């Protein structure tokens, strides 16, 4: 049964480092293979329906960065090609029909990290590198080198009409026809990380600026979407027309599903999302920095039945560490209580709220019509200070007494306290004169961040200023 929301289907574990790229192929017998590449130098091929590992391809001597699968060969005896690019500056070509073999060929020509690969509709291979060049290969021969980018090339794509689109750390997208640049697109404000074809008339790009742009095949802008607040490393497309879905992921660790420019689902992940890829059956493979690839599905028959697997994933997400410095409009003075969150109804998928629970600030996301814990904001609150075995937001030095008989006393204060009540408790603790009530309260209000300040009691008399905060 078809469901509108993606649920966890498979967890693919066999890599020992980041899964940097994911791809797929569908064999003549209908079986779908999920393919994962990692910084551990290995490529794994999985049966997408069972989640079983079918083979491991070994041939790179450094990180494997990117994958591309050719169209299935017309002749049964021909190889089903997989291309992989690595930090060893080479591209390996594999036969997916023979998972026990070494590469059937190795393409050498780039002088730096090979960061992206893509097959054209006629079977030629496009490769992009940190050496700033794009190369076109027919078989083992480099037939053309495209030069023009001023920084590393991060994305290449062969369009259905035969043109080639490239994206770079120089923030530009270039469209090439017969080896000649015909269009320069300067829309992104950061490194262009991925370019995909949506259909024969459109392609899309994403980048470090958090934007996704859609263009026609001539390079004219069709739409723009501020999709993430952090780097977007990957996008993928599935379906046609009104049913088209777009998936995106990146540094913020959130997988987002888009339809008609609206985020219809947000799935927080435990770590950075490096690569996403739709399978032919509509399932979605996600490669992440926690050495795992996961397959998500909208088909109830393929949903993971093991409660342990889902609970493990959700607990990993709940333990993510977030930095307040990287959260847009984070306001430590606007934190909710757990009770206040229970009364809140999210306005849109992926909306965030932050809740103070004792000395912690937890992050919650509106997902599938409920608030789900998606991490801890580790630097939201100043570190606690200890005084007489108790922890406080602040420990102040308060100087009292006359000039020749001064005493330095310690005042512990938490922002949740009423400053006037804290002042009253302090004066009573040290048996001080009532003249200190108002100065102590004013000092707290001026130097701490009280969550609320109650009405000033009439018993407080204005007296003298107090000295300093440590």
Explain how this protein is built.
This protein has helices spanning 307-318, 338-343, 419-429, 437-447; strands spanning 2-13, 19-26, 32-38, 42-47, 53-58, 64-69, 81-86, 90-95, 105-108, 114-119, 125-129, 133-138, 141-147, 153-158, 164-168, 173-177, 180-185, 192-199, 202-207, 211-216, 221-226, 232-238, 245-250, 254-259, 262-268, 273-278, 284-288, 292-299, 321-322, 352-357, 360-367, 370-377, 385-387, 390-392, 394-400, 407-413. Strand 24 and strand 25 (262-268) form a beta hairpin. The protein has four helices and 36 strands. With 470 residues, it is mainly beta. Helix 3 crosses helix 4.
β-strand number: 36
Class by SSE composition? mainly beta
Strand content: over 45%
How many helices?
4
User: Largest sheet, if any?
Assistant: 4 strands, antiparallel
State the distance separating the first and last CA atoms.
Answer: 63 Å
Q: What is the radius of gyration?
A: 29 Å
Q: Give the integer mean of the pLDDT values.
A: 92
Strand order of the largest sheet: 1-28-27-26
Record keyword descriptors for this entry.
mainly beta; 4 helices; 47% strand; single chain; 470 residues; 9% helix
List the helices and strands and how they pair.
Elements: E1 2-13, E2 19-26, E3 32-38, E4 42-47, E5 53-58, E6 64-69, E7 81-86, E8 90-95, E9 105-108, E10 114-119, E11 125-129, E12 133-138, E13 141-147, E14 153-158, E15 164-168, E16 173-177, E17 180-185, E18 192-199, E19 202-207, E20 211-216, E21 221-226, E22 232-238, E23 245-250, E24 254-259, E25 262-268, E26 273-278, E27 284-288, E28 292-299, H1 307-318, E29 321-322, H2 338-343, E30 352-357, E31 360-367, E32 370-377, E33 385-387, E34 390-392, E35 394-400, E36 407-413, H3 419-429, H4 437-447
